[in-house]
UniProtKB/TrEMBL annotation:
Gene Ontology MF term list: oxidoreductase activity
Keywords: Iron, Iron-sulfur, Metal-binding, Oxidoreductase
Family matches, as InterPro entries: NuoE_dom, NuoE_N, Thioredoxin-like_sf
Region (Disordered): 201-264
Signal peptide residues on this chain, from the entry's feature table: none
EC number: 1.6.5.11
Segments of skewed composition (Basic and acidic residues): 216-230
Protein name (record): NADH-quinone oxidoreductase subunit NuoE
Name of the top EC class for this enzyme: oxidoreductase
Protein's gene: nuoE
């Protein structure tokens, strides 16, 4: 088999990045064995490998391991979380150990360890959002869904997470759905948002695309595969641009970096 996994599960090094089979009997046979070992159906694995090859090709030779983060997003776009099969696949294709892949996947909070819902709802309860009512928003959504943090509804529609700052403090308290912003929420507006998602209705973020893509769709975007929606909806809001406007009105500019040549 082309994977470097041994029978007892230890991962070896030196795996080449396999290409999508061209149809030769030997390649198809290898793919079937690899797919079975990793837990993916051959067709799914072929598509994953084509995408993985495209991701890895974005990085300079010798720095292929930098592809791990977008590869983990790609795994989430297929499995809904960083699955054991996905960890094994990333490890194999990047000649890493599964422990190394898991270490990255568990460090970054965007990577899920359990299947996320079609709509992953994150409520920020960090300092600024908390003082602006984030805890009340969280409690209202948790009460409405009956979910705790990192839990998913039985029908797979909603998963819930307490978030540690969405980098949108100027719009506190903030809720995110599949990483799209819903600014200045109240307990009532957040519950209404979740109710709309539960009814299968499209919802419009305060900033970003006109409707919220599914969790898996946005994960594919985060893997670097454009969805053609980058120009939809408003981008930066007025509170975020306030400092820029003030600087321009006062004629303030950032200090220039001085080189040794300049200081002579
Ligand atoms: S504290 Fe909530 S977005 Fe920063």
């Amino acid at each position: 088999m082309s994977t470097t996994e041994t029978a007892n599960g230890a991962a070896g090094a030196g795996a080449a990045v396999p290409q999508v089979p061209a149809g030769a009997d030997g390649q198809e046979a290898d793919l079937a064995v690899t797919a079975s070992a990793l837990g993916y159906a051959p067709g799914v694995l072929a598509r994953l490998d084509a995408d993985i090859a495209e991701i890895i090709a974005r990085y300079p030779v010798g720095h292929e391991r930098s592809a791990l983060i977008p590869m983990l997003h790609l795994i989430q776009s297929v499995d809904g979380y960083v699955s054991p099969a996905g960890i094994a696949l990333c490890a194999d294709r990047l000649a890493l150990t599964r422990s190394e892949v898991s270490a990255v996947a568990t460090f970054y909070s965007q990577f899920r360890r359990h299947p996320a819902g079609r709509y992953h709802v994150g409520v920020c309860t960090n300092a600024l959002c908390a003082v602006m009512g984030g805890d009340e928003v969280w409690q209202a959504v948790a009460d409405h869904t009956g979910l705790g943090s990192d839990e998913t509804s039985e029908d797979g529609t909603i998963s819930l997470e307490r978030l540690e700052c969405n980098a949108a403090c100027d719009y506190a308290p903030v809720v995110m759905v599949n990483w799209e912003f819903f600014d200045r929420q109240t307990p009532a507006s957040a519950v209404a948002l979740v109710e709309a998602l539960e009814r299968g209705e499209d919802v419009t973020p305060t900033r970003g695309p006109e409707t919220v893509p599914t969790f898996r769709e946005n994960e594919r975007l985060l893997a670097g595969f454009e969805d053609g929606r980058a120009q939809e909806g408003p981008g930066a809001g007025q509170p975020s641009l306030q400092g820029l406007g003030l600087a321009r009105s006062q004629g303030w500019t950032a200090p220039r970096e001085t080189s040794e040549e300049d200081s002579k």
